[in-house]
Write the C-alpha coordinates for this entry.
Amino acid sequence: MSRFEEQISHAVRGRHPLIYVQSQEEDRVLDVLRQIAPKYFPGGAVSTWSCVRGLEPAAEGADTRDPALALHWLLARPRRGFCVMRDLSAFLNEPRVLRGLREAYFAFSRDYPTALVLVSPQAPPPKALEKEMLVVEMDAPTPEEAVARMKEVEKLYPSARFPENLREQAALALRGMSLKEVDHVMHRVLSGGATSDTMLNEIFAEKAVLAKKSGFLEMVPTSFDTAAVGGLENVKSWASQRKDLFTLSAMKSGLPVPKGVLVMGVSGCGKSMVVKAIAGLWRVPMFRLDMSLIFSGLYGSPEAAFHDALRTIETLAPAVLWIDEMEASLSTPKEAATPQSMIFAAFLTWMQEKPPLIFVAATANRIEMLPAEIVRKGRFDQVFFCDLPNEDERAQIFDIHLRRQGSDPAGFEMKSLVISTEGWSGAEIEQAVIAARLEARQAGRAMATGDIWRQTNSMVPLSRTMAEQVKAIREWAFKRATRASKPVVKPPEPKEQV
Ligand SMILES: Nc1ncnc2c1ncn2[C@@H]1O[C@H](COP(=O)(O)OP(=O)(O)OP(=O)(O)O)[C@@H](O)[C@H]1O
Ligand SMILES: [Mg+2]
Protein backbone atom coordinates (compact mmCIF):
# COMPACT_ATOMS: atom_id res chain seq x y z
CA MET A 1 0.00 0.00 0.00
CA SER A 2 1.44 3.36 -0.98
CA ARG A 3 1.74 6.12 1.57
CA PHE A 4 -0.98 8.01 -0.28
CA GLU A 5 -3.36 5.09 -0.09
CA GLU A 6 -2.55 4.65 3.58
CA GLN A 7 -3.45 8.25 4.25
CA ILE A 8 -6.65 7.98 2.24
CA SER A 9 -7.60 4.82 4.10
CA HIS A 10 -6.91 6.61 7.37
CA ALA A 11 -9.16 9.48 6.21
CA VAL A 12 -11.97 7.20 5.12
CA ARG A 13 -11.88 5.08 8.24
CA GLY A 14 -12.07 8.31 10.26
CA ARG A 15 -15.01 9.39 8.09
CA HIS A 16 -13.49 12.63 6.92
CA PRO A 17 -15.78 14.08 4.25
CA LEU A 18 -13.32 16.77 3.14
CA ILE A 19 -9.89 15.69 1.99
CA TYR A 20 -7.31 18.05 0.55
CA VAL A 21 -4.61 16.60 -1.70
CA GLN A 22 -1.76 18.90 -2.54
CA SER A 23 -0.54 17.69 -5.90
CA GLN A 24 -0.12 18.74 -9.47
CA GLU A 25 -0.83 15.24 -10.61
CA GLU A 26 -4.59 15.13 -10.89
CA ASP A 27 -4.34 12.13 -13.18
CA ARG A 28 -2.38 10.04 -10.73
CA VAL A 29 -4.64 11.01 -7.85
CA LEU A 30 -7.62 9.96 -9.96
CA ASP A 31 -5.97 6.70 -11.01
CA VAL A 32 -5.28 5.71 -7.43
CA LEU A 33 -8.71 6.73 -6.19
CA ARG A 34 -10.39 4.79 -9.01
CA GLN A 35 -8.49 1.69 -7.99
CA ILE A 36 -9.34 1.93 -4.33
CA ALA A 37 -12.85 3.40 -4.41
CA PRO A 38 -14.69 0.04 -4.51
CA LYS A 39 -12.70 -1.12 -1.50
CA TYR A 40 -13.63 1.83 0.71
CA PHE A 41 -17.08 2.58 -0.69
CA PRO A 42 -18.59 -0.78 -1.72
CA GLY A 43 -20.54 -0.18 -4.89
CA GLY A 44 -19.08 3.30 -5.16
CA ALA A 45 -17.03 5.00 -7.84
CA VAL A 46 -15.16 8.21 -8.58
CA SER A 47 -16.91 11.28 -9.92
CA THR A 48 -15.22 14.56 -10.75
CA TRP A 49 -15.91 18.26 -10.92
CA SER A 50 -14.13 21.13 -12.63
CA CYS A 51 -15.24 24.66 -13.32
CA VAL A 52 -15.00 23.97 -17.05
CA ARG A 53 -16.82 20.65 -17.18
CA GLY A 54 -19.03 20.73 -14.12
CA LEU A 55 -19.84 17.42 -12.46
CA GLU A 56 -19.00 14.22 -14.33
CA PRO A 57 -20.96 12.03 -14.69
CA ALA A 58 -23.09 15.03 -15.58
CA ALA A 59 -25.91 16.20 -13.38
CA GLU A 60 -29.08 15.71 -15.33
CA GLY A 61 -30.70 18.94 -16.40
CA ALA A 62 -28.37 21.13 -14.38
CA ASP A 63 -25.32 23.21 -15.25
CA THR A 64 -22.97 22.49 -12.38
CA ARG A 65 -19.96 24.48 -13.50
CA ASP A 66 -20.62 26.99 -10.75
CA PRO A 67 -18.87 25.54 -7.68
CA ALA A 68 -21.57 26.49 -5.19
CA LEU A 69 -24.24 24.97 -7.42
CA ALA A 70 -22.20 21.81 -7.78
CA LEU A 71 -21.90 21.50 -4.01
CA HIS A 72 -25.58 22.15 -3.64
CA TRP A 73 -26.30 19.39 -6.13
CA LEU A 74 -24.01 16.96 -4.36
CA LEU A 75 -25.61 17.73 -1.02
CA ALA A 76 -29.03 16.97 -2.42
CA ARG A 77 -27.91 13.83 -4.25
CA PRO A 78 -24.74 12.43 -2.70
CA ARG A 79 -22.78 10.16 -5.01
CA ARG A 80 -21.33 7.08 -3.45
CA GLY A 81 -17.55 7.15 -3.56
CA PHE A 82 -14.95 9.86 -4.00
CA CYS A 83 -15.80 13.10 -5.74
CA VAL A 84 -12.60 14.73 -6.97
CA MET A 85 -12.97 18.49 -7.17
CA ARG A 86 -10.28 20.05 -9.33
CA ASP A 87 -9.14 23.54 -8.43
CA LEU A 88 -12.00 24.08 -6.04
CA SER A 89 -9.40 25.65 -3.76
CA ALA A 90 -9.33 28.62 -6.13
CA PHE A 91 -12.92 29.42 -5.14
CA LEU A 92 -12.50 29.20 -1.41
CA ASN A 93 -12.76 32.94 -0.95
CA GLU A 94 -16.43 32.75 -1.99
CA PRO A 95 -18.75 32.59 1.01
CA ARG A 96 -21.21 30.34 -0.82
CA VAL A 97 -18.49 27.83 -1.59
CA LEU A 98 -17.21 27.85 1.97
CA ARG A 99 -20.74 27.38 3.21
CA GLY A 100 -21.33 24.52 0.78
CA LEU A 101 -18.20 22.73 1.95
CA ARG A 102 -19.05 23.22 5.57
CA GLU A 103 -22.53 21.81 5.03
CA ALA A 104 -21.03 18.88 3.17
CA TYR A 105 -18.77 18.34 6.15
CA PHE A 106 -21.67 18.10 8.57
CA ALA A 107 -24.02 16.23 6.27
CA PHE A 108 -21.59 13.61 5.01
CA SER A 109 -19.79 12.82 8.22
CA ARG A 110 -22.89 11.06 9.52
CA ASP A 111 -23.60 8.22 7.09
CA TYR A 112 -20.52 8.98 4.99
CA PRO A 113 -21.74 8.28 1.46
CA THR A 114 -19.00 10.29 -0.12
CA ALA A 115 -15.70 12.03 0.40
CA LEU A 116 -14.98 15.26 -1.45
CA VAL A 117 -11.35 15.29 -2.53
CA LEU A 118 -9.97 18.72 -3.35
CA VAL A 119 -6.92 18.45 -5.57
CA SER A 120 -4.73 21.45 -6.04
CA PRO A 121 -1.06 22.22 -6.48
CA GLN A 122 -1.42 25.05 -3.98
CA ALA A 123 -0.27 24.77 -0.41
CA PRO A 124 -3.01 23.84 2.02
CA PRO A 125 -4.86 24.36 4.19
CA PRO A 126 -7.20 27.24 3.60
CA LYS A 127 -7.43 28.90 7.00
CA ALA A 128 -11.22 29.03 7.13
CA LEU A 129 -11.50 25.25 6.76
CA GLU A 130 -8.45 24.16 8.69
CA LYS A 131 -10.44 22.10 11.17
CA GLU A 132 -12.74 20.42 8.67
CA MET A 133 -10.20 19.60 5.98
CA LEU A 134 -7.87 16.63 6.26
CA VAL A 135 -4.67 17.24 4.35
CA VAL A 136 -3.16 14.32 2.48
CA GLU A 137 0.09 14.39 0.57
CA MET A 138 0.50 12.60 -2.71
CA ASP A 139 3.74 10.62 -2.94
CA ALA A 140 6.05 11.25 -5.81
CA PRO A 141 5.97 8.39 -8.33
CA THR A 142 8.13 5.44 -7.29
CA PRO A 143 11.21 4.57 -9.38
CA GLU A 144 9.28 1.52 -10.59
CA GLU A 145 6.43 3.71 -11.81
CA ALA A 146 8.93 6.01 -13.50
CA VAL A 147 10.62 3.07 -15.22
CA ALA A 148 7.28 1.75 -16.43
CA ARG A 149 6.45 5.16 -17.81
CA MET A 150 9.87 5.49 -19.48
CA LYS A 151 9.32 2.18 -21.22
CA GLU A 152 5.90 3.26 -22.42
CA VAL A 153 7.33 6.35 -24.07
CA GLU A 154 10.19 4.30 -25.52
CA LYS A 155 7.70 2.17 -27.41
CA LEU A 156 6.84 5.27 -29.44
CA TYR A 157 10.45 5.56 -30.63
CA PRO A 158 11.36 2.12 -31.98
CA SER A 159 14.57 3.39 -33.55
CA ALA A 160 15.91 5.10 -30.41
CA ARG A 161 17.41 2.99 -27.64
CA PHE A 162 17.66 3.95 -24.01
CA PRO A 163 20.79 2.28 -22.64
CA GLU A 164 19.85 -0.39 -20.12
CA ASN A 165 22.89 0.33 -17.94
CA LEU A 166 21.73 3.89 -17.38
CA ARG A 167 18.21 2.90 -16.52
CA GLU A 168 18.67 2.80 -12.74
CA GLN A 169 20.45 6.13 -12.60
CA ALA A 170 17.89 7.64 -14.91
CA ALA A 171 15.00 6.34 -12.85
CA LEU A 172 16.64 7.80 -9.77
CA ALA A 173 17.24 11.11 -11.47
CA LEU A 174 13.64 11.16 -12.62
CA ARG A 175 12.46 10.73 -9.06
CA GLY A 176 10.37 13.58 -7.90
CA MET A 177 9.08 14.34 -11.33
CA SER A 178 5.45 13.82 -12.01
CA LEU A 179 4.70 11.12 -14.56
CA LYS A 180 3.72 13.83 -17.01
CA GLU A 181 7.13 15.39 -16.58
CA VAL A 182 8.73 11.99 -17.11
CA ASP A 183 6.84 11.86 -20.40
CA HIS A 184 8.14 15.24 -21.49
CA VAL A 185 11.72 14.43 -20.59
CA MET A 186 11.64 11.05 -22.30
CA HIS A 187 10.12 12.48 -25.45
CA ARG A 188 12.83 15.11 -25.53
CA VAL A 189 15.65 12.66 -24.82
CA LEU A 190 14.48 10.06 -27.31
CA SER A 191 13.46 12.36 -30.14
CA GLY A 192 16.59 14.51 -29.97
CA GLY A 193 18.94 11.72 -30.99
CA ALA A 194 20.97 12.15 -27.79
CA THR A 195 23.87 9.79 -27.22
CA SER A 196 23.86 7.65 -24.12
CA ASP A 197 26.31 10.03 -22.41
CA THR A 198 24.15 13.05 -22.91
CA MET A 199 20.94 11.33 -21.97
CA LEU A 200 21.69 11.42 -18.25
CA ASN A 201 22.79 15.02 -18.48
CA GLU A 202 19.54 15.92 -20.19
CA ILE A 203 17.70 14.36 -17.31
CA PHE A 204 19.83 16.18 -14.73
CA ALA A 205 19.16 19.45 -16.51
CA GLU A 206 15.48 18.84 -15.96
CA LYS A 207 16.05 18.91 -12.23
CA ALA A 208 17.69 22.29 -12.47
CA VAL A 209 14.52 23.57 -14.09
CA LEU A 210 12.36 22.03 -11.38
CA ALA A 211 14.51 23.59 -8.68
CA LYS A 212 14.41 26.96 -10.34
CA LYS A 213 10.64 26.86 -10.47
CA SER A 214 10.53 26.77 -6.69
CA GLY A 215 12.37 30.10 -6.59
CA PHE A 216 14.61 29.53 -3.59
CA LEU A 217 16.50 26.45 -4.70
CA GLU A 218 19.21 26.74 -7.25
CA MET A 219 21.25 24.00 -8.83
CA VAL A 220 24.95 24.50 -8.18
CA PRO A 221 27.37 23.32 -10.83
CA THR A 222 29.76 20.82 -9.26
CA SER A 223 32.33 20.27 -11.94
CA PHE A 224 34.96 20.69 -9.22
CA ASP A 225 36.60 17.42 -8.50
CA THR A 226 38.51 16.89 -5.31
CA ALA A 227 41.81 17.58 -7.07
CA ALA A 228 40.89 21.27 -7.16
CA VAL A 229 40.86 21.32 -3.37
CA GLY A 230 44.22 21.64 -1.67
CA GLY A 231 44.57 19.72 1.59
CA LEU A 232 41.46 19.00 3.68
CA GLU A 233 42.42 15.35 3.34
CA ASN A 234 40.15 14.11 6.11
CA VAL A 235 37.06 15.45 4.35
CA LYS A 236 38.19 14.08 1.03
CA SER A 237 38.84 10.58 2.31
CA TRP A 238 35.58 10.64 4.27
CA ALA A 239 33.77 11.50 1.04
CA SER A 240 35.50 8.96 -1.12
CA GLN A 241 34.70 6.16 1.34
CA ARG A 242 31.06 7.03 0.81
CA LYS A 243 31.09 7.11 -2.94
CA ASP A 244 28.36 5.15 -4.74
CA LEU A 245 26.04 5.13 -1.75
CA PHE A 246 23.52 7.37 -3.46
CA THR A 247 22.12 4.67 -5.69
CA LEU A 248 19.07 2.48 -5.51
CA SER A 249 21.09 -0.69 -5.25
CA ALA A 250 23.12 0.63 -2.31
CA MET A 251 19.88 1.59 -0.65
CA LYS A 252 18.30 -1.77 -1.29
CA SER A 253 21.28 -3.57 0.15
CA GLY A 254 20.76 -1.63 3.35
CA LEU A 255 24.03 0.28 3.34
CA PRO A 256 23.73 3.30 5.60
CA VAL A 257 23.46 6.41 3.45
CA PRO A 258 25.12 9.49 4.95
CA LYS A 259 22.71 12.15 6.15
CA GLY A 260 24.78 15.22 6.16
CA VAL A 261 27.90 17.06 7.01
CA LEU A 262 28.50 20.37 8.71
CA VAL A 263 31.65 22.16 7.67
CA MET A 264 32.60 25.09 9.81
CA GLY A 265 35.60 27.24 10.17
CA VAL A 266 37.60 30.28 9.25
CA SER A 267 36.44 32.34 6.28
CA GLY A 268 38.13 31.59 2.97
CA CYS A 269 39.45 28.17 3.97
CA GLY A 270 37.50 26.23 1.40
CA LYS A 271 34.28 25.27 3.18
CA SER A 272 32.02 26.05 0.24
CA MET A 273 34.54 24.56 -2.11
CA VAL A 274 34.84 21.27 -0.30
CA VAL A 275 31.09 20.64 -0.07
CA LYS A 276 30.82 21.21 -3.80
CA ALA A 277 33.63 18.75 -4.27
CA ILE A 278 31.77 16.14 -2.22
CA ALA A 279 28.66 16.46 -4.41
CA GLY A 280 30.78 16.35 -7.55
CA LEU A 281 32.62 13.25 -6.38
CA TRP A 282 29.33 11.49 -5.66
CA ARG A 283 27.78 12.61 -8.97
CA VAL A 284 24.74 13.85 -7.13
CA PRO A 285 23.15 17.13 -8.20
CA MET A 286 23.50 19.86 -5.62
CA PHE A 287 21.01 22.57 -4.75
CA ARG A 288 21.65 25.67 -2.72
CA LEU A 289 18.83 26.81 -0.51
CA ASP A 290 18.67 30.58 -0.36
CA MET A 291 17.57 31.24 3.19
CA SER A 292 17.41 34.98 2.66
CA LEU A 293 14.64 34.40 0.11
CA ILE A 294 12.81 32.16 2.55
CA PHE A 295 12.74 35.01 5.04
CA SER A 296 12.01 37.66 2.45
CA GLY A 297 8.26 37.13 2.52
CA LEU A 298 8.21 36.75 -1.26
CA TYR A 299 7.05 33.17 -0.86
CA GLY A 300 4.59 33.61 1.97
CA SER A 301 5.42 33.13 5.61
CA PRO A 302 8.97 31.91 6.27
CA GLU A 303 7.65 28.75 7.91
CA ALA A 304 5.49 27.84 4.93
CA ALA A 305 8.24 28.71 2.47
CA PHE A 306 10.71 26.56 4.37
CA HIS A 307 8.31 23.65 4.48
CA ASP A 308 7.86 24.05 0.74
CA ALA A 309 11.61 24.10 0.22
CA LEU A 310 12.07 20.86 2.14
CA ARG A 311 9.29 19.20 0.21
CA THR A 312 10.75 20.33 -3.07
CA ILE A 313 14.19 19.04 -2.22
CA GLU A 314 12.69 15.73 -1.19
CA THR A 315 11.21 15.40 -4.63
CA LEU A 316 14.60 16.15 -6.18
CA ALA A 317 16.35 13.28 -4.38
CA PRO A 318 18.98 12.00 -4.78
CA ALA A 319 20.36 15.42 -4.09
CA VAL A 320 22.70 17.40 -1.93
CA LEU A 321 20.97 20.26 -0.13
CA TRP A 322 23.46 23.00 0.56
CA ILE A 323 22.74 25.51 3.28
CA ASP A 324 25.52 28.05 3.09
CA GLU A 325 26.39 30.34 5.99
CA MET A 326 23.87 28.61 8.14
CA GLU A 327 24.40 30.85 11.13
CA ALA A 328 23.41 33.93 9.14
CA SER A 329 19.87 32.69 8.76
CA LEU A 330 19.33 30.18 11.51
CA SER A 331 21.04 31.60 14.56
CA THR A 332 18.52 32.26 17.27
CA PRO A 333 18.23 34.54 20.21
CA LYS A 334 17.60 32.19 23.12
CA GLU A 335 14.58 33.90 24.68
CA ALA A 336 11.95 34.43 22.04
CA ALA A 337 10.15 32.15 19.60
CA THR A 338 11.20 33.96 16.44
CA PRO A 339 10.53 32.67 12.91
CA GLN A 340 14.21 31.71 12.89
CA SER A 341 13.96 29.56 15.97
CA MET A 342 10.80 27.87 14.70
CA ILE A 343 12.39 27.16 11.36
CA PHE A 344 15.47 25.90 13.08
CA ALA A 345 13.43 23.50 15.18
CA ALA A 346 11.58 22.32 12.06
CA PHE A 347 14.90 21.82 10.34
CA LEU A 348 16.31 19.71 13.16
CA THR A 349 13.25 17.48 13.17
CA TRP A 350 13.37 17.16 9.42
CA MET A 351 17.07 16.22 9.59
CA GLN A 352 16.12 13.23 11.70
CA GLU A 353 13.17 12.14 9.63
CA LYS A 354 14.14 13.17 6.14
CA PRO A 355 14.15 10.55 3.44
CA PRO A 356 17.49 8.99 2.63
CA LEU A 357 19.18 10.15 -0.56
CA ILE A 358 18.98 13.75 0.57
CA PHE A 359 22.35 14.76 1.87
CA VAL A 360 22.54 18.02 3.78
CA ALA A 361 25.75 19.98 3.45
CA ALA A 362 25.76 22.93 5.81
CA THR A 363 28.54 25.45 6.06
CA ALA A 364 29.04 27.97 8.84
CA ASN A 365 31.63 30.50 9.93
CA ARG A 366 30.45 31.33 13.40
CA ILE A 367 29.10 28.09 14.66
CA GLU A 368 28.99 29.36 18.23
CA MET A 369 26.00 31.42 17.08
CA LEU A 370 24.06 28.25 16.31
CA PRO A 371 22.13 26.44 19.03
CA ALA A 372 24.15 23.65 20.59
CA GLU A 373 21.72 20.90 19.47
CA ILE A 374 22.99 21.25 15.95
CA VAL A 375 26.15 19.30 16.65
CA ARG A 376 24.47 16.58 18.65
CA LYS A 377 25.35 13.16 17.34
CA GLY A 378 22.94 11.60 14.90
CA ARG A 379 22.03 14.72 12.98
CA PHE A 380 25.11 15.25 10.91
CA ASP A 381 27.37 12.31 10.26
CA GLN A 382 30.32 14.53 10.82
CA VAL A 383 31.19 18.07 11.85
CA PHE A 384 34.38 19.18 10.17
CA PHE A 385 36.49 22.15 11.07
CA CYS A 386 38.43 23.87 8.29
CA ASP A 387 41.34 25.63 9.89
CA LEU A 388 43.86 27.92 8.23
CA PRO A 389 45.91 25.71 5.91
CA ASN A 390 49.10 24.19 7.25
CA GLU A 391 52.40 24.24 5.35
CA ASP A 392 51.70 21.23 3.17
CA GLU A 393 48.29 22.53 2.35
CA ARG A 394 49.56 25.98 1.46
CA ALA A 395 52.00 24.38 -0.94
CA GLN A 396 49.15 22.45 -2.56
CA ILE A 397 46.99 25.56 -2.75
CA PHE A 398 49.80 27.51 -4.41
CA ASP A 399 50.26 24.66 -6.80
CA ILE A 400 46.57 24.65 -7.75
CA HIS A 401 46.27 28.40 -8.19
CA LEU A 402 49.58 28.91 -9.98
CA ARG A 403 48.48 26.32 -12.52
CA ARG A 404 45.08 27.93 -12.78
CA GLN A 405 46.82 31.21 -13.60
CA GLY A 406 48.81 29.53 -16.34
CA SER A 407 52.14 29.22 -14.53
CA ASP A 408 54.27 26.18 -13.87
CA PRO A 409 54.72 25.82 -10.08
CA ALA A 410 58.18 24.31 -10.67
CA GLY A 411 59.42 27.78 -11.55
CA PHE A 412 58.57 29.18 -8.10
CA GLU A 413 60.35 29.06 -4.77
CA MET A 414 57.66 27.15 -3.03
CA LYS A 415 59.30 26.90 0.36
CA SER A 416 59.61 30.63 0.80
CA LEU A 417 56.07 31.24 -0.47
CA VAL A 418 54.75 28.77 2.06
CA ILE A 419 56.70 30.38 4.89
CA SER A 420 55.65 33.90 3.96
CA THR A 421 51.98 32.94 4.03
CA GLU A 422 51.76 31.52 7.54
CA GLY A 423 48.24 32.32 8.82
CA TRP A 424 46.83 32.91 5.32
CA SER A 425 43.63 31.36 4.08
CA GLY A 426 43.25 29.58 0.73
CA ALA A 427 41.17 32.47 -0.59
CA GLU A 428 43.91 34.95 0.35
CA ILE A 429 46.57 32.87 -1.35
CA GLU A 430 44.41 32.74 -4.45
CA GLN A 431 44.01 36.53 -4.37
CA ALA A 432 47.76 37.05 -3.99
CA VAL A 433 48.48 34.83 -6.99
CA ILE A 434 45.89 36.61 -9.12
CA ALA A 435 47.13 40.07 -8.14
CA ALA A 436 50.74 39.01 -8.80
CA ARG A 437 49.83 37.74 -12.23
CA LEU A 438 48.15 41.02 -13.14
CA GLU A 439 51.09 43.05 -11.87
CA ALA A 440 53.56 40.96 -13.84
CA ARG A 441 51.41 41.27 -16.92
CA GLN A 442 51.39 45.04 -16.63
CA ALA A 443 55.16 45.02 -16.34
CA GLY A 444 55.26 42.86 -19.45
CA ARG A 445 56.87 39.75 -17.97
CA ALA A 446 55.94 36.31 -16.73
CA MET A 447 54.88 36.01 -13.09
CA ALA A 448 57.70 35.03 -10.72
CA THR A 449 58.15 34.40 -7.00
CA GLY A 450 59.04 38.03 -6.39
CA ASP A 451 55.65 39.21 -7.67
CA ILE A 452 53.89 37.06 -5.12
CA TRP A 453 56.23 38.18 -2.34
CA ARG A 454 55.33 41.77 -3.04
CA GLN A 455 51.68 40.87 -2.62
CA THR A 456 52.18 38.89 0.54
CA ASN A 457 54.19 41.73 2.05
CA SER A 458 51.53 44.30 1.36
CA MET A 459 48.46 42.26 2.36
CA VAL A 460 47.36 41.62 5.93
CA PRO A 461 45.56 38.30 6.32
CA LEU A 462 42.22 38.05 8.05
CA SER A 463 43.73 35.89 10.76
CA ARG A 464 45.65 38.97 11.88
CA THR A 465 42.99 41.65 11.39
CA MET A 466 40.40 39.50 13.09
CA ALA A 467 42.69 37.57 15.38
CA GLU A 468 40.18 37.43 18.25
CA GLN A 469 37.42 36.00 16.14
CA VAL A 470 39.64 33.41 14.51
CA LYS A 471 40.89 32.37 17.93
CA ALA A 472 37.32 31.98 19.19
CA ILE A 473 36.34 29.81 16.22
CA ARG A 474 39.35 27.62 16.75
CA GLU A 475 38.75 27.18 20.45
CA TRP A 476 35.16 26.24 19.82
CA ALA A 477 36.06 23.78 17.11
CA PHE A 478 39.00 22.02 18.72
CA LYS A 479 36.69 20.59 21.36
CA ARG A 480 33.72 19.73 19.17
CA ALA A 481 34.67 19.06 15.58
CA THR A 482 36.85 16.78 13.49
CA ARG A 483 39.73 18.49 11.75
CA ALA A 484 39.23 18.75 8.03
CA SER A 485 42.98 18.47 7.49
CA LYS A 486 45.31 15.65 8.34
CA PRO A 487 47.94 16.81 10.81
CA VAL A 488 51.35 17.41 9.30
CA VAL A 489 53.73 14.63 10.06
CA LYS A 490 57.11 16.22 10.56
CA PRO A 491 60.05 14.04 9.55
CA PRO A 492 62.01 13.07 12.66
CA GLU A 493 64.86 15.43 13.48
CA PRO A 494 68.14 13.92 12.33
CA LYS A 495 69.92 12.39 15.33
CA GLU A 496 73.13 14.10 16.29
CA GLN A 497 76.11 12.03 15.34
CA VAL A 498 78.14 11.17 18.35
N1 LIG B 1 41.99 24.33 0.24
C1 LIG B 1 41.88 25.08 -0.85
N2 LIG B 1 42.38 24.67 -2.03
C2 LIG B 1 42.27 25.41 -3.14
N3 LIG B 1 41.67 26.60 -3.17
C3 LIG B 1 41.17 27.10 -2.03
C4 LIG B 1 41.23 26.35 -0.81
N4 LIG B 1 40.62 27.07 0.14
C5 LIG B 1 40.17 28.18 -0.45
N5 LIG B 1 40.49 28.22 -1.75
C6 LIG B 1 40.16 29.27 -2.73
O1 LIG B 1 39.44 30.27 -2.05
C7 LIG B 1 38.15 30.45 -2.61
C8 LIG B 1 37.17 30.69 -1.51
O2 LIG B 1 36.97 29.49 -0.80
P1 LIG B 1 35.55 29.11 -0.20
O3 LIG B 1 34.51 29.97 -0.78
O4 LIG B 1 35.37 27.66 -0.32
O5 LIG B 1 35.79 29.52 1.30
P2 LIG B 1 34.76 29.50 2.50
O6 LIG B 1 35.45 28.77 3.58
O7 LIG B 1 33.47 28.99 2.03
O8 LIG B 1 34.69 31.02 2.85
P3 LIG B 1 33.48 31.86 3.46
O9 LIG B 1 33.42 31.49 4.88
O10 LIG B 1 33.93 33.25 3.27
O11 LIG B 1 32.27 31.48 2.70
C9 LIG B 1 37.87 29.19 -3.38
O12 LIG B 1 37.05 29.44 -4.48
C10 LIG B 1 39.25 28.74 -3.81
O13 LIG B 1 39.61 29.31 -5.04
MG1 LIG C 1 31.59 29.88 1.80
In short: Residues 391-483 form a domain with the Helicase, Ruva Protein; domain 3 fold (CATH 1.10.8.60).
